[in-house]
Amino acid sequence: MDIFYQPYIDPEFESFLERIHPPRVCIDNDAFQDCTLVKVDSANRHGILLEMVQVLTDLDLVISKSYISSDGGWLMDVFHVTDQLGNKLADRTLILYIQQTICDTRRRGGIPKELQTCLKKEVRPCHVSTEYTALEITGRDRPGLMSEISAALYELGCHVTAAVQWTYNSHVACIIHIEDGLHGGSIMVQKRLAQVQEKLESVVEAHHESGEQRSVRLTAPAPGRTHTERRLHQLMYANRDYEQCQGCDGSCRHWNGCMKTHVTIETCREKGYSVVNMRSRDRSKLLFDTVCALTDMEYVVFHATVRSKGSMADQEYFIRRQDGCSLISQGERHKLTQCLIAATERRVPHGLRLDLCTENKMGLLSEVTRVFRENGLSITRAEIGIHGERATGSFYVTDASGHDVNPRTVELVRQEIGGSALVVSKSRSCRSSREEEERPPRFSLGNLLWSQLERLSGNFSLIKS
């Protein structure tokens, strides 16, 4: 017999708990020599884990380990973090920002500008704006699609202020922020918005076959917009990019030395949990992507351990559905497995990275992507935005068949766009030391998580007002 847990918590009572038990955030630089501990102790609610991880990843911090426990309406989470260079967090302003921002997201008030000014910059996902009309597009990926979209926007008198594009499994999702190219500011006239949407729908539909999923959606400016990278995950998921996902087939004899993504789901009947174990290549924002997938699929993480070793990362989650049930059917397990593989892999860039930095002007994205298209380059991932009078961003490109780009083609593209405006970026290569081939010992939440949390929970301290 399956065990069902379906507690009811009155929303007013949940809000009351948040008011009488505000979060306690402790930043500990003394416990370890090689990392800073971020420890959070607070009343729990669905989605808070994702919000905390989002705060840390938006600051470009690296989370090497984390221990999570949120049973019984209370959470105690511990994150081991460093900066991108592997250093501990020494900037007191940054530490204060993390403390206050986690507290503010708990109160569902967002991130106040006064907190962001203490860092002398606005903290948000790269090349993203909440001040302009947002265009969301999903569909079947094809070479030249971004060029056709940006050319259509230019013809309609729309200026692109920011754009982000992901591709995975022949699917594409992009979020483009636009303003009125003549008068500036967001486009608010409904007739104009309808014209933009109609034109872009025709562009997206041009090469789609009957029955293929696609969408074009315009949204008005709003301060409470969904985090852009989370929204990209949602768009790709809605476009069912996960359906072709396959992890390791087991021929590697259970994770030993295999670089593919592994996902196993088992049942802990005594506690009513489904236990998800994952192993994959480690990379930036991996924890955010995994928790994002679980949260948006309405699974609740009660306990978890995450750690990285060498180039590989291990994750273990004890979860239930939001209605209190564990995963019951084999079909549900299979879908979650596919979605976790997709969430792990869809952000991984493919191709040669080209960095853009040039003077901002009307039609810039259309011009750059046209040159890519005319030289047979396909964009697998893109981020571009405006900073003052400059436009900066990056493009990952392959040839039209998905293979490496010919260096001569790259040089021709650079000369046409401007050699100083577009440069080849040497991405970090994956290390291939023997350490990566070693199989990290499997860890059990029952033994590891509780020993760590019991040791750390006594060290939580209140933020001084």
Structure report:
The structure is a single chain. 31% of the residues lie in helices and 29% in strands. It has 465 residues and is of the alpha+beta class. An 8-stranded antiparallel beta sheet has the order 1-2-4-3-11-12-10-9. The longest helix is centred in the middle third of the chain and has 16 residues.
Key words describing this protein structure:
8-stranded antiparallel β-sheet; disordered C terminus; 13 helices; 465 residues
Biggest sheet architecture? 8 strands, antiparallel
Round the Cα radius of gyration to an integer and report it.
23 Å
**Strand residues, percent:** 25-35%
- Assembly state of the chains shown: single chain
Overall form: globular
What do the pLDDT scores average to?
82
- In what order do the strands lie side by side in the largest sheet? 1-2-4-3-11-12-10-9
Give the class from helix and strand content and strand pairing: alpha+beta
Helix content: 25-40%
Order of helices and strands: HEEHEEHHEHEEHEHEEHEEHEHEEHEHH
How many runs of DSSP E, i.e. beta strands? 16
Helix count, per DSSP?
13
Low-confidence runs of at least 5 consecutive residues:
1-9, 106-110, 428-465
Distance between the termini: 51 Å
Please render the helix and strand layout as text:
Elements: H1 11-20, E1 24-28, E2 36-43, H2 48-58, E3 62-69, E4 74-82, H3 92-106, H4 113-117, E5 133-140, H5 145-155, E6 158-168, E7 171-180, H6 190-205, E8 215-219, H7 228-238, E9 262-268, E10 273-281, H8 286-296, E11 299-309, E12 312-321, H9 330-345, E13 352-359, H10 364-374, E14 377-387, E15 390-399, H11 407-417, E16 422-425, H12 434-437, H13 445-457
Antiparallel strand pairs: 1-2, 2-4, 3-4, 3-11, 5-7, 5-8, 6-7, 6-14, 9-10, 10-12, 11-12, 13-15, 13-16, 14-15
Helix pairs in contact: 2-3, 2-8, 5-6, 5-10, 8-9
